[in-house]
Write a structure and sequence with these properties.
The protein is mostly helical. It contains five helices and two strands; from the N terminus they run H-H-H-H-E-E-H.
């Protein structure tokens, strides 16, 4: 596989994982695992600004991970695909096995210069 074909093949996966890489978006996805919610509900639960929550829900919607259902003047959002919960469960299993290594990753981990 050439580098360009590898990049083309990985592009959707890169976008998927990037959409889940933001802590707020991941929090919203985890909330949707419990059932549908309005932006207003998410604002109350997260304590974030309405514009911030709306932007993150919009991102997840554009990626096809979240769908909206309009009822009157309200929109209720939910996960578009239940398989996303399987992915998160698999990630939790992987983190249970490798969590310390991931947390110590010099590029993306949570260590600081003082920890090194």
């Amino acid at each position: 596989m050439t580098n360009s074909s590898c990049a083309t093949t990985l592009s959707p996966a890169v976008v998927l994982f990037h959409s889940l890489s933001d802590p707020t978006r991941l929090t919203i996805v985890r909330r949707f695992a419990e059932g549908e919610a309005r932006v207003r509900d998410l604002v109350e639960e997260t304590g974030l600004a309405q514009s911030t929550v709306s932007a993150h829900v919009g991102c997840l919607r554009e990626c096809g991970l979240v769908v909206g259902r309009t009822e009157g003047r309200q929109t209720f959002y939910a996960l578009a695909r239940p398989e996303l919960l399987d992915l998160l469960s698999a990630a939790e299993t992987l983190l249970a096995a490798t969590g310390a290594q991931v947390a110590l990753c010099p590029t993306y981990g949570t260590t600081t210069e003082e920890d090194r």
